[in-house]
Design goal:
Largest sheet: 8 strands, parallel, barrel
Helix content: 40-55%
Oligomer: single chain
CATH topology: TIM Barrel
Strand content: 5-15%
Shape: globular
Distance between the termini: 12 Å
CATH architecture: Alpha-Beta Barrel
Number of domains: 1
Radius of gyration: 21 Å
Number of helices: 17
Strand order of the largest sheet: 1-2-3-4-5-7-13-14
Structural class: alpha/beta
């Protein structure tokens, strides 16, 4: 019987900014996510316009307690439903649950000297509940929600002070949860600051005198995150000796649109643009081609004495990544259709089908991605995001027949297995994204659903927030119970 290795970590993934809610409870401060507006008048496939934000937008958001157009303030209300949600995860058989700690729940402004005890207690309760069911927490330290005061008063990660603030936060949570959390990730999709600098780095373009200065700030912020990630890894290993700390990157997989050498080269360059930022966290140094990019853009990174040694001394233990779709690259894009993807748009592949939100579905691309990453880094991999965001229909009998989600996940699990058994990839686990419905990051919608549990809430926050098992719930329960065998041994 074909199945995954013993101890394989099956589970699901969420992020506090999209799932937790309780935005103004328990002493929590505002974060970048709490001022991110849902824009129903903007095409949901146009992520860049959905994410555009100015200082004026933020000031308006700070004046209101509205949750209708600021959906990440309510999320799926895990804050009040965590016991019910964790029981559902246990019923599915989860071995691991990837979640994030909201930095602004622990340090509401980001710069305090003492943490918010009420926030710390909340996560104590969450971790205790998970461990009651033998579910290991996989905790992301920073997932798209820097504290807003830190952003407005310090320019977020552009400030050198960001490192000290973050290290204080990391030391606090590692000491507090040292007996409860073994698996950690530092920055979610650390490469993403180049695509959405406000969400990831707390950078607002109108705070800078020019677009060139803003671009400089983006790469400077990236450097500060590299140093902070290395110091977080150091602290975690010192405080929790058996801990495992991973980096997390967006696996943007590009194919040459044609066999023209120029297109092949373009695809290689596009892949490098993401991998460069994992290279630093794994190899402990800036790759030559990233330095060349900085030189060509006239980017000058300000470093303090010892930064390079810190980055070199504390690399990560494993590579985690998100994978949803693939794209194509071409030098001449005239007449070529563009498709959306995870935080980026690129050329549409004519051989692939797309989801209703325009993301192309490519299970084989997951295997290709795994081989690329493992051959490059030779460290264990962990797939911490993968899933299909689409509409679900509640039938008259209350059921949700999401066979399309089952098919999507099954095909990706099969290619995942091939990467392990045929290509020799070392894979730690798999946590499907949005295991319980949450607010989509790309469109700020609830109607773009990923979960195997339906949450009764619409795009405007209306609903009972009642949880309902979808058809995929029982299917995934069987997958985990059989360690993948129910999918891999289908006739």
């Amino acid at each position: 019987m074909r199945q995954f290795k013993e101890g394989f970590l099956w589970g699901g993934a969420t992020a506090a900014n999209q799932f937790e809610g309780g935005w103004n409870e328990g002493g929590k401060g505002l974060s970048t996510a709490d001022v991110t507006r849902f824009k129903p008048d903007v095409d949901v496939q146009d992520m860049q316009k959905q994410w555009e934000i100015t200082s004026k937008d933020i000031e308006e958001a700070m004046k209101t307690t509205d949750t209708t157009y600021y959906p990440k303030r309510h999320g799926s209300d895990f804050y009040h439903h965590y016991k019910e949600d964790i029981a559902l995860m246990a019923e599915m058989g989860f071995k691991v649950f990837r979640m994030s700690i909201a930095w602004s729940r622990i340090f509401p402004r980001g710069d305090e000297s003492e943490p918010n005890e009420e926030g710390l207690k909340f996560y104590d309760q969450v971790f205790d509940e998970l461990l009651k069911y033998d579910i290991q927490p996989l905790v992301t330290m920073s997932h798209y929600e820097p504290p807003l005061a830190f952003v407005m008063e310090y320019n977020g990660w552009y400030s050198r002070k960001s490192i000290d603030f973050f290290v204080r936060y990391v030391e606090t949570i590692c000491r507090r949860y040292k007996d409860k959390v073994k698996y950690w990730l530092t920055f979610n999709e650390i490469d993403s600051v180049i695509r959405h600098p406000f969400m990831t780095g707390g950078l607002i373009e109108d705070h800078f005198e020019s677009h060139e200065a803003f671009e400089q700030a983006i790469y400077q912020s990236m450097h500060h995150q590299f140093v902070a990630s290395a110091l977080a890894t150091k602290l975690c290993h010192e405080i929790i000796p058996d801990s495992k700390v991973g980096c997390m990157l967006t696996k943007l997989t590009f194919y040459p649109y044609s066999c023209k050498p120029e297109d092949v080269l373009k695809a290689q360059q596009d892949m490098r643009a993401t991998l460069a930022f994992a290279d630093v966290q794994v190899f402990g140094e800036y790759p030559a081609y990233l330095k060349a990019l900085y030189q060509s853009k006239n980017i000058s990174i300000k470093k303090e004495l010892g930064d390079d040694e810190i980055i070199k001394s504390y690399p990560v233990d494993f590579i985690s990544f998100s994978y949803y779709s693939s794209s194509c690259s071409a030098v001449d894009t005239t007449g070529l259709e563009v498709a959306e993807g995870n935080t980026a748009a690129a050329i549409k592949n004519p051989y692939l089908k797309s989801s209703p939100w325009g993301w192309q579905i490519d299970p084989t691309g997951l295997r290709i991605s795994m081989v690329d990453l493992y051959d490059r880094y030779r460290l264990p991999l962990f797939i911490v995001e993968n899933g299909l965001g689409t509409s679900d229909k509640v039938e008259e009998d209350g059921s949700i027949q999401d066979d399309y989600r089952i098919h999507y996940m099954a095909e990706h699990i099969k290619t995942m297995y091939d990467a392990v058994t045929i290509d020799g990839v070392d894979l730690m686990g798999y946590t499907c994204w949005g295991c319980i419905d949450l607010v989509s990051n790309s469109s700020n919608q609830m109607s773009k659903r990923y979960g195997m549990v339906y949450v009764d809430c619409d795009d405007y926050g209306n609903g009972s927030y009642k949880r309902t098992r979808k058809k995929s719930f029982r299917w995934y329960q069987d997958v985990i119970a059989s360690n993948g065998g129910s999918v891999l041994n289908e006739e």
